[in-house]
Amino acid sequence: MILSKRGQVTIPREIRERLNLKPGDKVEFAIQDDGSVQLFAKNRDVRELRGMLGPVRKRLTIQQMDAGIRQRAVERDRGSRSR
């Protein structure tokens, strides 16, 4: 690849197809500790993530979720005090 005067590169077709990139899609770059760079496609619709974690086991109300969060915070606080 060649970097243009404006800092642009052309993403090879194979990579565009693999990431399902279309004109106007967003991409993100991340610099790794070893100096390498990763390219991430930011073109997923949140609806595509449905079911990714498997079936919902139990539906909770907001109140039940809040109670669970409070309980976990209390347990965490007790654990940090005993150390």
What does this structure look like?
The chain has about 80 residues and is an alpha+beta fold. The protein has one domain (about 15-80). The chain contains two helices and two strands. It has a two-stranded antiparallel sheet. Strand 1 and strand 2 (about 35-40) form a beta hairpin. It is elongated.
Précis, in short:
The chain is α+β, with helices and mostly antiparallel strands. The protein contains 2 helices and 2 strands, in the order H-E-E-H.
How is the topology of this model organized?
Elements: H1 13-18, E1 27-31, E2 37-41, H2 62-81
Antiparallel strand pairs: 1-2
Report the C-alpha radius of gyration, rounded. 22 Å
Task: Name the quaternary structure.
Answer: single chain
Strand percentage lies at 5-15%
Number of E-type strands: 2
Contiguous uncertain segments of 5+ residues: none
Q: Termini distance?
A: 55 Å
How are the strands ordered across the major sheet? Answer: 1-2
Task: Spell out the helices and strands N to C.
Answer: HEEH
Helical segment tally? 2
What percent of the residues sit in helical stretches (DSSP H or I)?
25-40%
Based on CA inertia axes, which overall geometry fits? elongated
Mean pLDDT across all amino acids: 86
- Give the total of domains: 1
| Helix/strand/pairing category | alpha+beta
- Biggest beta sheet summary: 2 strands, antiparallel
